[in-house]
Amino acid sequence: MARSLLPQHLEDRRMNLRVLDSLPAKGYPGYINRTGRLRTVSHLYDRTTVLGHVGISPDEAYALTNKSAPHALYEIMVISAGATQRPGLHDHSPEFVKAFGVMADVFADHCRAYDLTPVVSWSYDPKTLDRESIQGEKRFHAHLVGRTQAERATVRDKNVRAGQLTTTRARRIVEEASVLGSLLSADCVDPDALRVLRPVPALSTHTATATAQFLLPNGWTSLTDPALSNDLSYIHRKLRRTYDAIVRTCTIGTTGTWKRPLIRDFDADEISIPLRTETRATLAHYLRALRPEILMDRQGSDRARDTHVYPLAGLAYAVTIAEQNGKVYLHLRANLFSDLGGAGISIIDGVIVKTKKGVGTLRADEIAARSAFQAEYLGQIHRHPLASRVFFPRI
Q1: Distance CA 80, CA 388 (A)
Q2: Burial of 24 (0-12, 13-18, 19+ CB in 10 A)
Q3: DSSP-assigned beta bridge partners for residue 65
Q4: What is the pLDDT of residues 266-314, one digit of tens each?
Q5: pTM of the model
Q6: pLDDT above 90 covers what percent of the chain?
Q7: What's the CA gap between 82 and 147, in Å, rounded?
Q8: Residues 6+ positions from 62 with CB-CB distance below 8 Å
Q9: Comparing C-alpha atoms, which of 30, 119, 139, 34 is closest to residue 75?
Q10: Distance between CA atoms of 162 and 339, rounded to whole angstroms?
């Protein structure tokens, strides 16, 4: 039997996480799932419905669009809309991040008026271009989703232990690297360096086992704090340095199209990042359990197998902001194999939920309700006290 990628006590924790596979989402008539279609600003206008487009500089802007492949009935997408593709939120100016924070805060208020639970998410995976990526569109884009009470009831009534899923499904929904990522983040992110976010101790909850979890102390309003941009950039830098140090010390070879580095003999103590003894041992266990055949000989012929055994091409993570027990948390989930990003995996009432798109077809009245929800949301932005950050970001 193959060796577990995690020490047994952590694998047991992973298998005890509560998950739902899957929450269905209807598609538009004639739904076809495609990615990589929004490389230029013209593509945004030709291939989506642009509801608003605001410029920040000659090469930086954002658009609010109606997603053509819905993850939920009540949803809107915020996408980077400058001439250059910028994949990460940290790749944008503080003005962009401040505008996005206001839009997310307004969205949460708007959801309450509809008796919906807000979930905001995005993914970062700019390098994976061969196999399925967690960031199909390489422009930064965030999914603003309102979950209905019926959907919450489905999650509550139908969630199961991850250990009840098949091995491949469990890895897609809550992979081992996500548990390892929560430990690495806890060791490498200095709480004193954060202005807004407050780290939740790793492994202290189910969600802090599957993600690096951070409290937003003032709820959704925390997203409007100008210092949030610094926090997110700082966390990304720490993840980048951690990932690079591991690759530099523990692998050999390069990354390319259907080409990945291999694990070499290494001394875990030589990984030049500050880690607790347990975390360093867990990292070494994980890397040494990656058999050579996991990292070789894939040509994209089998998506299910590729997303189980063939890794993404670089640093990759998904961010989900959601409510849990009356508080709001930001969850950062590390990905190495899974192709499910911030929209493909939600966290709803502490349960890790996979969304399955294109299950059934939206009726005419549902499409009308979706459009009305989006139009009313745009009106709410205009009335927000910080609306100038959205419409006049340079002031």
Answers
A1: 18
A2: middle
A3: 50, 77
A4: 999 999 999 999 999 999 999 999 865 555 555 556 767 777 788 999 9
A5: 0.95
A6: 84
A7: 30
A8: 53, 54, 56, 78, 79, 80, 81, 96, 99, 100
A9: 119
A10: 17
SS (H, E, C) the chain: CCCCCCCHHHHHHHHHCEEEEEEEEEECCCCCCCCCCCCCHHHHHHHCEEEEEEEEECCEEEEEEECCCCCCCEEEEEEECCCCCCCCHHHCCHHHHHHHHHHHHHHHHHHHHCCCEEEEEEEECCCCCCCCCCCCCCCCEEEEEEECHHHHHHHHHHCEEHHHCCHHHHHHHCCHHHHHHHHHHHHHCCHHHCCCCEECCCCCCCHHHHCEEEEECCHHHHHHCCCHHHHHHHHHHHHHHHHHHHHHHHEECCCECCECCEECCCCHHHCCCCCCHHHHHHHHHHHHCCCHHHHCCCCCCCHHHHHHHCCCCCCCEEEEEEEECCEEEEEEEECCCCCCCCCCEEEECCEEEEEEEEEEECCHHHHHHHHHHHHHHHHHHHHCCCHHHHHCCCC
Instruction: Read off the pLDDT of residues 19-58 as tens digits, 9 standing for 90 and up.
Output: 999 999 999 998 777 776 787 888 889 888 999 999 999 9
In the sheet that holds 141-147, the strands lie side by side as 49-57, 60-66, 74-80, 141-147, 117-124, 317-324, 327-334, 212-216, 198-199
233: Cα separation from own chain's centroid: 15
Q: What are phi and psi of 70, to 5 degrees?
A: -60, 145
Distances (CA, A) of 14 to 74, 140, 168, 293: 31, 29, 14, 24
How far apart, in whole angstroms, are the C-alpha atoms of residue 133 and residue 268? 29
